[in-house]
Structures are given as structure tokens and as C-alpha cells.
Amino acid sequence: MKQKSHKLLSLLLAFALMLSLAPAALAADECPSGGTHNWSGWKVDKEPTCVVQGSKSRTCSKCNATGTETIGIVGHSWQTKVDQYPTCTEKGKRTKTCSVCKKTETEEIAARGHTYTTYTDNKDGKQHTKTCDVCNNAIVENHTFGTAGTAIKCTLCGAANPNATQSITLNQTTATISVNGSVQLTATVYPTGTAVTWSSNNPTVAGVSVNGLVTGRQAGTATITATTSSGAQASCTVTVQNTTDFYITPASTTLYRGQTVQLRTVPSTSVTWRSSNNNIANVDYLTGLVTAVANGTATITATETYTNRTATCVIYVNSGSSVLTASPSSVSISSNSSAYSVSVSTTSSYRDGYVRWSLPSNNGYAEISDTRSSSSSYWGYAETTYFGSSSSYYSTNIYIRGIRSGHTTLTATLYDSRGNRVESIDIPVYVDSTTSHVLSAYPSTITTNSNGWSGAVYVSTPTTAYDDYIVDWSTSSSNIRISTRANTSDLGTTARTYMDGRTSGSVYVYDYGYNTTNGYLTATLRRPAGGTAIDTITIPVNNNRSGFTLSKNPNTSSVNLGYYDDDYYWDYDRYSYRDFSVTPYLNGTSIYNNSTYDIYYTWTLNNTTVQRESTSGSSYRLYADNSSLYSSSRNNTLTCSVSVYYRNASTTTANRLYSSSASWTVYTDRYYNDYTVSATVYDSSSSYCLDDRDDRGNTSIITQMQNKLSSSESIDYVRFHDVTDTYGDLSASTSRDYYYSGSRNNYDLREVTFTPDRIGTATFDCTVYGTRGNSYRCTISIKVEAGSSSKKDITYSARAGSDVSFSASDFQSWWRNSYSRGDLDYVRFSSPSGGSLYINYNGSNSSTVGSTYCYYNPSSRQTGISDLTFVPSSSSTKSATINFTAYGTTSSSSSRNTSMSGKVSISFTNTSVATISYSATGTRSVSLSASDFTSRYRDVVGSSAPSNMTIKFRSTPSNGTLTYNSTTLTSSNMSSYNFTSSSSGSNRINDVKYTPKNNSNSTDTVNYDCYTGSTLRFSGTVTFNNKAENTAPTNVTVTYSTTGSYVNFSAADFYNKNSAMLSASYLTFGTPTSGSLYVGSSVVSSGTKFAYVSNPSANYQNLGSVTYRPAAGFSGTATISFTAYNSNGTQAATGTVSIQVSQATTPNRTSFNDVPSTAWYYNDVTTLAKANIVNGRNDGLFHPNDAVNYGEGLKLILLAAGYPLQQELSGSNWAQNYLNLAISNGLLPGTAASYSLSAPMNRTTIATVAAKALKLSPVTNEASPYADAVDAEGYVLALTKAGIVQGDASSGKQLWNGSDNLTRAQISRIVYNVYKYRNVAPGGGSTSTDTSKPGWLN
Fold it and tell me: How confident is the model at residue 244 (pLDDT cuts 50, 70, 90)?
């Protein structure tokens, strides 16, 4: 009890003490002279330092009392310098120094640790080696084949798993395409090279080729499966859409020069891309990747491969570095200098735009200001300036002054009147510096060692202002390479490192060259995001490999190795030879047998290695009978390549010290300066006549021989010294002379032929003698190469089971491909395969050819080639061949026959793989597609259809009609039509239609033949699956919901309801039970027809352009009836659009703590708040002095003008729906992408939007009350005439000041007047004209 009494007593005493002190505390600011103190301003008595507080005082002017306060410490301003950079395993060290008090502290920098990104397979199936990218530390570890060890490849080095089973994956597992669209599937298999087959579980919906190309055939879903030889499978689900929608996303976009955007089509299908102006925006033809090139507008068009449908996208390109120009382009000033002006100008009008200037924060080298004032309060590191009002010159300037020696960069960034960034420009600034470079190189000159490598090379900057900037490295010579890891595996001509503080990452130089002293390395400093170079320096590169040379013996370019004993033959008893040698020198001193080096000598003869040895291999003896010498014994090349390494070093490219080579051209007889003639013959040719052009159309061998002689001398005869070669033979003898005029003897030069044997070059020696006694030695060089020649086979094709008639002209043409001046006499055939060859075939009693001579020009008693017919064994025969021997003359002057072998090849086409299917509904027509026939051509023939492919129909349908344009195809007229796959012109397959006779379920077929030119390639069948149509209308419902905003109709929401809606041609709408339907700004009138795709020729509008606008304040369900019609006008379906409408709600505040009742705008704000137009910010305040941006301005004006409340989004785009509403109603031009909702909104824009929202007519024919310019459209004068605005007369003149921005308090007056005009005095009633605030607010 006593203890509790003591506690109570203590509390009472404490309370009494508080009461006694309260008056003193309350009176602390009372002045003894009466009232409160009249304090002076604060005076700093002691400046604070980095670690010690300061103090300040003030004095009462009435009683001289003094008040004091402390000033907090400033704190250190540290500048950091790296003394020792950390490595992978060792710590680094850095020193930081306070720029104010010079205090110094030292810190450790943690070791970086190894960075392993390079993994090299050890090729043992078990392990790989990982290498640190920085220090090259290497560790051997086991492969990683997944958690179960069954992965196909190591997840780190990519090595194949020897224990993995066969597997397959596809490049995509789902795909959506349109009818006639396609998508390419690609299979990845393990092991590589495993065979894959493709299949579709629903080929009527989507078919797949042998290469995985999927083509949509009709709406539906199909599963495409790829299967390996062991049964491993992967599949892709393909959805085929029967839709006419085809567009590009995005529909439009704005790019800066150099930027890219990836365009895509919806649905995804095979397309090609083109730009209307590649000089403005360039697009990749296959991928749709767009690159902005120059200022302007370009239209990108996508064309669907199979349907030729097109869609477009508009690209707006803002100009690049050509917009801004700085004057001067760089600045050199002294420290403590006076203000120095720097300006930028633009190539086009940016009068309503502005420029933001900036220096790296707290760099301490320079300051900027928009005034020349010397007061430090005007200077800093960032400033904004605006363009002048001159109509002919647009520029703005800033002032800069130096503080201390060093280098920095002034950045000017241009923004347009809407706050959109246009471009930036960097202006180098040098303070007390004569250097023109930001970068310094270490070392300043690079010298590579004897192995070709340099040490680490890096660049530095005078400050840390360039931390994280990019350094791009490049080399000047193909001999010089760079690496970021001192590793030959990543050598290249370019590299990229980044600034870390004041220094960059290192690169290493490797020099492949020798005696190189003029190469260099280039380093370019760029901003962190890349772009314009800030500084570029070059660093000389010298190597330490100079002075390596080779001497050769004999020291000549060519050597005559041997000789002929007489005109024709070798003397095999006296093979000649020559000795060749090289000696390596380093700086003029021979290093042959030098113990410091290992030297390797590689001798090659005609690219074949004949000797490779070390020191003892410096010489080589070449005999005239060496098997590597060319058979022509001319123009052989002998080369010695020398490589030098340190003794016992590995002979890798990186370890090679020096290398060089010496060469000689070697001849083997004294005729090595003679004449060569040449020809090219395909390996498929039967023979080539020396008097004909070759298979490439080049001049004949004999004509080339004649060209060597003078114009007054002709060839008399030719003597051949050899006539056989590995690659082919001549039909001549070495013991005969062959005369140009065959009448001189029986051996005509013009009948000599060459028969190829294999691919390669055959050479033959001969002597050409002229009619005037001159002669020369000649080499005939005939190259045999792979190629198809019509000389080899005579080909025919026919439908399976059909007979084939021979044509004598085909055999004559075949003969003259070999002998252009000759004529075919007769042919003898061997027994054919796959059938029989008959003479004058008329059935089973006809005679076969047997050994009969068949003549080109037969007499009355002879059998002619054109009398022959081949009859296949059965309808299943796919091919047949008949070998023959032909006899005839080689030229018109020759009566002597020669023979040549050939072959007739006949192919028969099976129709089962050439079937094309279509589906028809009711009695509606279906169009044939050329792409279906070209696809069948690819399936049957195995290659793409050529441009001369034609289709001929052979039968008529039984349950329908086939029409071309307006002509019905019948059995009597269809043979006269050859239909093409062309996209233009007449007789197009795409213009052929099939129409069922009646509305029933049935199947119809039409047979066709496919030709290329006059050759039948295959036959096939077109099948039509007819399905009866339900003609009774069906009832459907389309539903939407909205929170006060507009509803845009989507065509897909209607046609996806059922098949009746899908097949409908157009719709009409009834009147909504509440609200209205609009197309653009116009109300939809009764009876307007809407199609899924607009069709102006049929007077159909696009259903996707319909918008429902709810009535102001309406909540509930609005319904709209509609009727869908078929193309013939019958009802396809009826239905209802049901729209659930609710109103967006926001807190309704009617007063704000920061809007006092004495403020001139108090009545405006509170009235608008009560009308739920103004709600304030999230903190409950109005913020009257904040600038109004586009989002806030649009919301206030639209709500005041009676537009519905919109759903507000989250984030910076909260007012997006208000922006969309303004654009859709024509209150703002352009698209939403061209506006920034956070950008300031000036007076002219506000007035224009308000006038349009009130539907005021523009005033253009009346005098303006304003002394300055207003908008040319007349909306400012319209708003003035309505009494909503009056301008500013405070300067003595009435001004509009259209480019000024408004605060939230200022716009509340204009919004208040808009609200009153609409609700109180439409047509010009009472609005606020309170004169207690600035006049221009009225």
C-alpha cells in the first residue's frame, strides 16, 4: 500500500512540473518588447566541414535577442582510383580521396573469380576441358548428359552422348495457318543424318510434303508427325483457319534512323515483304525485319505466297544525326573562364520543341547555365532551353564555363512539341587541354613478340564519367587479329570491351604477318547504348618477325626440265633432271642448320606433296619421268614451303615463327611455248566433233587452230602425236595425216571426234601445217565436266498404259547435236525393256522391229523411224528403255558413214498421287487454285513447277458444272483450253469454278493432264465433295461488356458462332435499345450492310469498323438485333448483340486542403468536383500549381463536354482510354502512338480540343481580337466567341500566348466554362468572367 502511495505522489509532482513549464514553452517565441520576435535572416557563423558541424544565428530587431542553430556536416566527396586491378585469384586495391578535405582511405577489391564459358570436347566420349576466359586456367571434368544421363549432347560443350538413344524434336509444336497458307516444319534428329518420314492424320485439313512443308487445305485441325527409322516421333498440332482476315502487326510504328522492328502477319503464313521506299525503310524480303534508313514515311507490304493477298504497315522514320548540328562541334575553354556560348540548330522546325542539356553529374570540370550571370546559383549540370519564334531560323543555345583541367562531354537532346525524343548529340569539352582525344592508349605503340602475340592493350579516360561506356576495337590489316582472352580460338578483326571506371577491358593482338611495320589498332569510345562515336584513336602495331627471306636455286621463274629427242617421241634412255634448293635467311643471316630452330621443307608438284622433311629437305631433284608431272608435260608448278619453329616446339599455327615459299614453273621439252586450243564437253555427251562448237557454245577446235595462222594461210593438214588419254580418246591415228579438205585423201580432219570417258582434262599433242609451208606445235586441251546433254537420251512420256509413237525428227536432232553438218541415215534397235516395239502398230497382229533397219528418210520399201510404236507390257509399267546404234554422215562433204550409240527413255505416270480434293456446300461455287496443281507437280515430279506448266481437263463432272469465267466447259470445247498457273492473263486455273447442280450430299470427279510445253508430265483427278446445306436460319447471340467506354465489334465474334454465320455474306443491324451504333463519327443508318471484309463494289462496309457508344450515364443491358444473309439474299441466321454496360466510378471529393476558399479558382474547382469531373490526386490533394499534361487535360475537357467516364488504367498510361476517345471522335489528329500522355498540353491544343468537343464551328472569316498569332483552323476564335476564353490583356495588349503550358488551377477555369456552356447556357450563355484572376483564364 505504501509503495503505491509513493508512485502516485511521483506522478502528481511530474504533472505539476509540466504545468509550471508550459507557459515558458508557449512563450519561447514571445518578444519582451511585445508580440513575437522579428527575426532577421540566418547568418552562417561557422561553415560546416566534411566531419564537423557548423552554426548559424539570427537577431531580433526589436529586443536584440539572438537565436542559434547547428548546420549538419557536409560529408566526404570521394573520388576513387584503382591502384591494382583484381585478377581471378588475387585481390585488388583502390584508393579514395575526398576532393574537399583530401582525406585518403584504402580499400580491398575482391578477387573476380574464374569465368568459365569455354568448354572444349576432349574427344574421348567422357570428358571436356573448361577454360577461364580471363586467365586461361584449365580444368578437366566429366560431360553433363542431363540428370538421367540420356541427353543427346553435353549441356556444356555440345559433345554427342555415345549412349543416347535415337531422338527427334520439331522446331515448333503448334502452328496456325490460313487455308492455302503454309508453314515449314524442321526436324532435329539424333544421331545426325537419321532418316525422317512425315505424315498427317487429317490430310483433307492439312497436307505435309516429304520435306516437312505443311499446307492448309480447309478449316480444321490436323496433327503432323515426324517419325525416325527406329520409331521415335515428334508432332505438331496445326490449326487451319478459313478466314479472310490478313493484316500486319504492328499496323504502323515510328522508328529513329538505325532502329529496327520485326513485322508479323496474322495469321502466320508464308509471305514476302517489300518496301515502297528502301531509302527510307528497308525490309528483309523473307523475314519482315524493318530497318529505318532516313527521315520520311514508307509503306511495307506483305504478300501471301499462295493467295497473293496483301497487307500493309506504315513506317514513320525520324531523322538521325542530320537533324541537330552543334556550333562549335567541340569546345576548348580554360578553367575559371567566363561564360562561353554553345548552340544547336535543326534542319526543320522545332519551334515548339526544346533541348535538354547535360554534363556528367559532379564531374567537376565544367558547368552550364541558360544565362551569362556569374552567380553560382544559376550554374549546374543540367538545363533546358527552348527554340526562338523566328519562322526561318530554329536554334537555341547554352552557356558553359570551365572549373578545372580535364575533359568532359556536353550532351544536347532534342524533344518535339509533344515531348517525344528526336535525337542526341555529344559535344566534347576540353578544359585547359590541348589534346583532341578523350582516350589514351597503353601501350601507345604495340610490338608483338616472335610468337606473334602482344601483351594486354587497353585505353583509359581522364575521369570516371565514361564508366560502362563501350570501346569498339578493329584492325587495319588482314594479318592483324585481336582477342579478348589471348587465345587463338577467338581471334577476329573486331572486338568489344567496356569501360570500368577510368580504364577499359584488355585486348591482345596477334600478328600473322612478317616484315610488317605499318599496321594499327583502332579504339572507338561510344555511349552505353552504342551509336555515335565520342572519340577514336589509332595505336601502331609493329611485329618482331622482320627479316625472314628465302633464296632459291636456280634463281629463275621457270625451268626447262627435259627435251624431246625428235618431233614425236621421248628418248626413254636419257631421262633428264634438275636439282632445286632453298636457303632460309633471318636478317640477312642463313639459319640453315641453326640449332635454335626446327625448319620444315614441304615440296609440292602440281599441288601434290612429293617430299616433306626437316633440315635435310632443303633440296629436291625432279626427274622428267615423275608421275606427278602433267601428261601434257607443260606448265607444271614446283613449290617449296618453309615453316620455322623453335626447337622441339609443337608445330601448330600459333607456334609458327616464320613461313614463306618459293616456286618454279617447270617444262619438260623445248616446245613449251607452243599454242593451245581448248574445248569443254559434258560427260553425258556421246562424242564431240573437232569442227563443231563445244557443249558450252565456244568456238570449234579447228577454228582455233586456223586463228593461229595468218589470214593468207589456211590449214593444210594436222599430224597427231597422241590420241588416247585417261579422260577420253580421239577417233584418229598417230600414223596418218588428217587434211582439212577431205578430197586430198580418205582422212578428213573435220570428221575427227573426241569421246569422253570420265570427268577431267584430256590433252593431245599435234603439229598443224599450213598451205604456205608454215607449221607450229599445238596442244589440244578438252575439259570433261559434269553436265546434262541432249545427246545422250531421246525421251518420251505418257500416261500409264498408253502407247508411244516415235518421231524421225527427234532422232535427226539427236544426231546433229554431235554432228551439226551431218545427217542421220538409219537406226538399229536392241530389245526394249518394259514392252515391245512395233512397226505400223494396229493391234496384236503387228510385227515387232527386231533387227530391222529403220531409216530417217525411208524409200517405199524401207521401214521409217516414224513408223514405230512402243507398247508397254501393262498399265503398271513405270518406265522403259531401248538402246540403239545410229549410222550417218559427219559432214555434208563426207559420204562415209560413222556410228554412234544412244538410248530411248520412256516414262509412264501413275495418276493416284495427283488427286486434288475440294469441298462444296449447297449450290455455292468453289474456285480451283493454281497452287494445288503446282503442289501436285512438286509431289509427282520432285521439283517446283516451271512457268510453262499447263493443265488440260479430259472429262466433265456428272453432278455439277465446270466453268471458266462465264463459259461452261463441255466435252466438245474443253480440249481447246490449256490452263496456266499464272497470276495474270487469260486461261488461268484460278478462274475455273465448280458449281454443284443441287443441294445434296454427293461426290464428283474431273480428270486432267499436266504438261510442260508439249510434254505430258502426269495425269490426275480433281474430286469435289458436295455437302448439303441447312437452309433454315439459326439464332445466335454475341455478347460484350464495357465500363462506360466504347465497344468495337470484331468480325471473328460473329463468323465463329457457327457454319451458317461463317458462310454468310453480309449482316444488317436493328436499332439499339440504348445507345447508338457508329462507323467512325457517323451513326449507322437502317439497312446498312456489313461484311466480314469490306467490299466497296458490293456496297458492303467492314463489320470490324462498327462501334457501340453507350448513352451517357446508362447502366444495364443494351441489345441490338441483327440478320445474316447469304450471297443470294436468303437468311443465313438471326441473332442478338447483348452489351452489359456499367459506369466507371472514382472517389467523389468536393473539397481539397490545398484549395483555400480565398483562392480565385476555388469556385471552379469545387463546382467541377461536385460534378465528378475533378477528383484530385491519389493523396487527396488538388495540386493547383502542377503543370497539366495530356492525360489530365483530355479527361477534364471530355467529361466537362458531356463525354462518358472512361475506365482508367494503371501506371503512366492511366488516361489511354480518354486519348483513344479523343482520337476516335476527331478531337486530335493522328494515332495514339504519336502522343505522350505525360507531355505538357499547351493553350492552343486545349482550346482546339475543347472547341471540337463542344462541336463549335471554326471561325476563320472574322478579325482576331488577339495581337499575336492563333491557330489557322479557327478553333481558338470559336472558343473566344463562345465566351469560354478571352486571352491575356495584362501587358496592355490582348495576347493569346498559344504555346504556354497551363497549371491545374488555370485549366480549371476553362473546364468550368466548358461545363457551364454545355449545362447552363448552350449557344452562348453565361460563363465565368471573374476579373480577380489573370484575364487570359476567362
Answer: low
Are 561 and 668 spatial neighbours (Cβ–Cβ below 8 Å)? yes
Average pLDDT, the chain: 81
Distances (CA, A) of 231 to 166, 167, 194, 195: 9, 9, 11, 11
Smallest CA-to-CA distance from 621 within 570, 579, 571 is with 579
pLDDT at 572: 36
Of 1071, 1075, 1054, nearest in space to 1120 by CA: 1071
Q: What is the pLDDT of residues 910-932, one digit of tens each?
A: 645 578 999 888 888 899 999 99
Rounded Cα distance between 1278 and 1287, Å, is 13
C-alpha–C-alpha distance, residues 137 and 115, integer Å: 9
Tell me how far apart the alpha carbons of residues 1181 and 1186 are, in angstroms, rounded to a whole number: 11
d(CA 115, CA 491): 19
- Kindly report, residue by residue over 345-373, the tens digit of the pLDDT: 887 667 677 888 888 765 678 889 988 88
Helix (H, G, I), strand (E, B) or coil at 356: strand
Q: 721, 732 in Cβ contact below 8 A? A: no
Residue 718 identity: V
**pLDDT over 90 (residue 894):** no
Question: Nearest CA to 1209 among 1201, 1220, 1217, 1199?
Answer: 1217
pLDDT of res. 5: 47
What does the angle CA 1314 – CA 1316 – CA 1319 come to, to the nearest 5 degrees?
A: 110
pLDDT score of 1261: 85
**Residue 1060: per-residue pLDDT:** 77
Can you name the residues that pair with 93 across neighbouring β-strands?
A: 84, 108
Kindly report whether the global pTM for this prediction surpasses the value 0.85: no
Quote the strand ranges of 201-329, DSSP E. Answer: 206-208, 213-216, 220-228, 233-241, 247-249, 252-256, 260-262, 264-266, 271-275, 281-283, 289-292, 296-304, 310-318, 324-327
Contact at 8 Å (CB) between 1071 and 1086? Answer: yes
Q: At what angle do helices 1162-1170 and 1304-1319 cross, to 10 degrees?
A: 60
Residues in a beta bridge with 241: 178
Residue-wise pLDDT for 388-441, tens only, equals 655 445 788 899 988 877 778 888 888 877 777 777 777 888 887 655 677 888
Sheet of 206-208: strand order equals 182-184, 213-216, 206-208
Angle between helices 1243-1253 and 1304-1319 (to 10 degrees): 20
Sheet with strand 406-415: strands edge to edge: 331-333, 421-431, 406-415, 354-358, 382-386
pLDDT of res. 679: 93
Residue 75 has what DSSP assignment?
A: -
Query: 382 to each of 368, 417, 422, 1029, 1238, how far by Cα in Å?
Result: 7, 20, 18, 74, 20
CA distance 1233 to 314: 12
| Separation CA 33–CA 356 (nearest Å) | 53
Contact 1248, 1271 (CB under 8 A): yes
Strand duo 589-590 + 577-586: pairing: antiparallel
1298 exposure class (CB count in 10 Å sphere: 0-12, 13-18, 19+) = buried
| Total length of the chain | 1338
Angular region, 1290: left φ>0, alpha ψ -120 to 50, beta rest: alpha
| Neighbouring residues of 1033: CB distance < 8 A, sequence distance ≥ 6 | 1060, 1124, 1131, 1132, 1133, 1134
For residue 739, the surrounding DSSP H or E stretch is: strand 737-739
Between 244 and 168, the more confident residue is 168
Instruction: Say which residues have a Cβ less than 8 Å from residue 1051's Cβ, sequence separation at least 6.
Output: 245, 1092, 1093, 1102, 1103, 1104
**Helix or strand (DSSP H, E) at 1139:** strand 1131-1142
Residue-wise pLDDT tens digits, 808-863 = 998 988 888 777 778 889 999 988 888 889 998 876 567 889 888 999 999 888 89
Q: 1008 forms bridges with which residues in the sheet?
A: 953, 1020
